[in-house]
Amino acid sequence: MAKQPYTKARQQANKKWDQAHKERTRYISRRSQARGFIRNFATQNDLDELKGLIAKREQDLSNEQLSLNNS
Prior knowledge:
Layout: H1 8-20, H2 22-40, H3 44-70
């Protein structure tokens, strides 16, 4: 079964939501791009680098959480 195209009203509602939630829209877009890159294009060297970046980010988030809990 073919997917139904969005109605004009649905397109307008989506656009209105996107305008009202720009940061969330940007976050979702960037997350999607990162996942697509990893799934479709990343080389082993890219994956190794990303693992290091992820470990650093996890450590930073952990440190932030500890400092919030100690405040």
